[in-house]
Design brief:
150 residues; alpha/beta; seven-stranded mixed β-sheet; globular
Length: 150
């Protein structure tokens, strides 16, 4: 996680008054995490390690529909073999009115943390966030940052 991602999540938390039950998909601590920004936080990752409370596949989240107020997917989408399925699962577990914060590496960003499958454009994020009622996306420090509200 880059310092820019941390600061962006902190700003979104403050701007949108994000609170309640938070799921962080891809939470394995690689150069930082955002756990300290939220009170009711669950870190989920496919791999065991620091900042991981639950090991599970993002393509089949082990939670009922409408379980979370906020879902984070920070710097993991470029490592996801089926990111469209992950987005569908996010929408499923997010409560009505809930917030989804998404960041991933942009076109031109160098390969890192193998496996590293994808790069994204602002237009791609617009498509990924289109299932949400309101969304916004922008390029920021070599990545695409976006949010959606269900």
């Amino acid at each position: 996680m880059t310092p820019e991602v941390y600061e962006w999540v902190k700003e979104a938390r403050d701007t949108f008054a994000l609170k309640g039950k938070v799921l962080d998909i891809g939470s394995l601590d690689i150069q930082g995490n955002v756990k300290d920004l939220f009170d009711d936080y669950i870190g989920l990752d496919l791999l065991a390690g620091s900042n991981v409370n639950v090991r599970a596949d993002a393509h089949a989240l082990p939670y009922p529909n409408g379980s979370f107020d906020v879902v984070l997917c920070l710097e993991m989408l470029e490592h996801d073999t089926n990111f469209f399925q992950t987005i569908a699962e996010v929408q499923r577990v997010l409560k009505k009115g809930g917030w989804f914060l998404l960041t991933a590496r942009a076109n031109g960003f160098p390969k890192h943390c193998s496996p590293d499958y994808w790069r994204f454009s602002v237009e791609a994020f617009s498509l990924l966030l289109s299932p949400f009622e309101v969304h916004s996306e922008a390029e920021n420090a070599g990545g695409i940052f976006g949010w959606g509200r269900k």
